[in-house]
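Reopening closed ticket. The problem is back. First fold of the pair:
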Amino acid sequence: MKRMYILLIAACFSLSLSAQTFISEDFSSGQMPPPGWNALPLGSQWSSSNTSNAGGVAPEAEYSNATGTTTARLLSPIIDLTNVDTVLLVFKHAYEGSWGSPDIGVATRGGSPWTIVWDESPNGNIDPEEIQLILTGGDVGKPNFQFSFFVSGNMANLDAWYIDDVILKSPSGLDCKMTSISVPAVITGPEAVGGSVTNLGNTAVNEISISWQSFNGTVYDSTFTGLSLDLLETFDFDFDGSWISAFGYHDLTMWINTVNGVQDESQENDTLSKTIAYYANILPRKPCFEEFTSSTCGPCASFNSSFVPWSQQHADEIVLVKYQMNWPGSGDPYYTPEGGTRRNYYGVSYVPDLFCNGTQTNTSMGSVQSAFDNASELTSTLDIASSFTVNGTNIDITTNILPFSNYGEKRVFTIVVEKVTTGNVGSNGETEFHHVMMKMFPNGNGSTVDLQDRETATLTYNYDMSSTHVEEMDDLLVVVIIQDYSSKEILQSAYGYEDANYSDEARLDMIMLDGEPLDEFDPDVYEYDVYLPEGTVEEPILSAETMDDAAFTVINQAFEIPGTSTVEVYAEDLFSTKLYTVNYRIATGTDEKPVPAVHVFPNPAQDQLYLTGITRADVQLFSSDGKLLMSKANFRSGPIDVSDLPRGIYILNIQAGDAHVVRKKVIIL
């Protein structure tokens, strides 16, 4: 729950006539508390963290490692606000915790008791956000003004609170801040470009000019009018254009040019950059549970009485492996030294002990469910296809791993488990045991594999399982775990199944350009020349359909005309691939038809899209993935109703007579 105490009455307060910054603290000194600040209580709870979780740049302030019920504060320096009647307090923060966490907030004082001006009672994590407060009256105007960030209550469910980029200032006369860039930090395809600006000045903002720079250096400008933004009001906007880049990490930069036709008074907050990770593919990360247990452990039987049914209920959603330990007492008869290696890696000192994606998890079903819920939100750029065959007591395992980013050297653990065992009954009352580890390949330390973007890594193992504790050779599963060995984070996991038949079909069924099938396409022809009208500057939107539904494509844009786009096709087995090439060329010659002078506006549009410059044309509207959504024959200049279309990027094809098709990208808000 969020509570905000804005100490003003908008209709009757007077604003400062000149801007002044009283505090600008980004915690870059690495000192906690920063010079002039104070932290209560002193100790390790308030610290400088080399992270950027609040949305700023490392380092940042962090409050963590607290116990009991208490109130802690990070206090600003004392500021003389004599003759100042209004100030803005702006800061970034993020919170990690669960339901029942303590209150967090901001309070002010002017030699008197603290007055809360903003607070929240978190019921879970708070993603990075910027808080902007107008403070007037009360403590403002005092010669001994001070504010504090506070945490108050039972600290049991607080993991960490991060704070960064704290600014206390009086409002400028004319000042807009670039607040956010709306392109997601991780994308797998073209994304609409937009953001938000906030008025930090006393003057109402009616017009603002904003630019952004694309991956290839092109600068896009837009002017937005009719805004009427008052102090601390925010405007969300979208550009005509989309972000597309080569795969990898790239910075998108956006900036304010003018406000109300002139430069504003504070250019230091006019520019914002955001790192965009563009991946060929993003997949769900399967939660991986590893349990250390024993048939001679009473608490293990108690925990497993709930955990086993829960695991069976979520069998298709998790990966599970259990390591039987050689204690307490005589321990479990199915203990192996490889399980001991895994125990030492995690530092396990008691059973039952549980790890989810490499992080220790309490052995209570509430904690298990919470770990599962959190892990289910994670993604990965790793895909796994594993299978095995059994011949007598011999097992042959083949695993293909396909990364969609550069990971470098990571550990891969290939583990044979038996689904149900009964031969290791001990003294704790359990009569059967599930997903018991029988063998790890090549050993308990796994295999170090160099994982590079779109380069398949193949692991094969052959082993005679007669030397293990396997009870039934037709009751086996293979578990594959990819792990960062230093941080212990599991990056992806999967099961390998007996005689799994992964398709090797990696051909395309069709290539489409702006939704239109490519002329004379043949699945067994892998290179095409496409001639575009003279003057074309934007490449067509290329999409493709695979012959096998389990195959998938990675499309590499040309980024320039003339240029070349490619379609990489990966079969279900993650090993078989095909590469299709489309060369964009510019058509030349006296027989070329002129391109009609067609205008499409407004762009972005909401309800109506107007077309001018045509007298009779065939008009088609496609989604960004090539689906035909609308078709109009013999269309004349005028409006098209787009009010029922969802927000997104679309392609408008306009063909007048025998002239070339004019393609326009449009954004629907």
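Second fold of the pair, where the issue appears:
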Amino acid sequence: MYDLLIRGGRVLDGTGAPWFAADVALVGERVVAMGHLADREAVREIDAAGRFVTPGFVDEHGHSDVTLLVDPRAQSAVRQGITSLAVGACGMSAAPVREASRDAYRRATPVFSFEGYEWSWAGMGEYLEALRARRPSVNVVALAGHLPLRVSVMGQATRPADEGERAEMRTMLAEALAEGARGFSTGLTYESTVFADTEEILEIAKALGPHGWAYHTHMRSYGRSRAQALAEALEVAEGAGVPLVVSHLYPSGRDYWGEAGQIVEWVERARDRGAEVGYDVTPWLRGGGPVGQSFPPWAREGGLEGTLEVIRDPVRRGRLARELEEGGDWAGWIRPEWEEWLVCRAGKLEHREWLGRTVAEIAAERGQAPAETALLMYLEDRGQYWVAPRTKCDEDIDLLLRHPSGVPTCDGFALAPEGPLAYQDRPNSYGSFPRVLGRYVRERGVLTWEQAVQKMTSIPAGRLGLWDRGVLRPGMAADVVIFDPATVVERADYQRPQEYPEGVEWVIVNGEVTVSPDGHTGARVGQVV
């Protein structure tokens, strides 16, 4: 007798093959049979008539390092069908970080600015054990980030690492990989990694070689210098002899809309010469992140406190405001459209009134220039507020999602609309994968059902080394999603970001029903791999 039998569904197995009718049987944590199983019995059955049955979705890029510790149910992730997710993206991982640097790193890094968890670890192994102890509802893969390595070895130094420092960071990464990390990530628009040179990154990344895990990068530029940024990313990955995954890849800023074809051409040329290159993209027209990543490097010397001192000084604040408006010689500048800089996150409770409003609106209310307002808000919120500017166009996202090397991602957090994680954020965290299915498949036909499911399952699973997940076959892990193709869609938007999606009816993680039509069941059987 089976533990669970899913009857009558149309199986999209994650390979990109056309759907086929089959029953799916689970015993324990594994899929054990598929096909016509009408004469078999099970402890529990699910009627999937008129529904698609797929492998669990895999999100290869995210920042839930500590939100999973605050609330391990991973509500906003698992309710959209995500059964496995990666943490530690954009160079900002929770480990490894030396104990002496831990508190300063936590205070200065916005993705860790949540309440309700105790930072009790230093090494990657200790962090993974802390996650296991919390028993998350989803499977978790951890990347080791560049920023904690740099902070541990160099503090807030605003220069490239020297030979000894590079070796020390490479040793830290090697230890993290030995303890379970499955890749190395960088965020080269963030402090203090914006000051790293290519040699530093490459020398650290060489620790990946014996393991074969990918180099994941938030590049130095997605705007005017994106060609040089991609060339640097390829130099690092090829020099280390490992795959490259470019995070949230798209031409950023109105000045560069319509140029995704150029990006695809660069990726294809690299693959033609033998470089293993892939990328992910969020299926939303707004980007988002900490405001400080828009600042030139000179304004970030000395870390967060150094930037706050710059803004306190009227003369230097004036210079910074001019450079934000007019551009400078740093790679990451994107022309600001203040009426599109939507505030999507604030650190202090008293600043939650900013949420859902643009910098232009707030500036007009204050009677100030927008650049001045943006900087003063940074000072008032101690660098914690985020904006979601309109940085993309449909034409580019369609092309990038359609390409075989592109997969969708949330680039968000595992959150919940109630409890300690109940605060407004971008809708990415609640609806990215249902949005792909509802908007990009059913409504607009950018992808087929088969293509979309493959991009959300087997492709990202392979990049993260989840070889027993991402495909629905006997012997594979029992991560399964059942959704209604007629209704699946996101409900979250930038004004109401904390809305669960429609149409994702059942989510099974390691054989346990974790989401049913009645909501989250309370199951917490995810594996930290």
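Update: turned out to be a display glitch only; the data is intact. The mean pLDDT is 95. The chain has 17 helices and 21 strands. Please close again.
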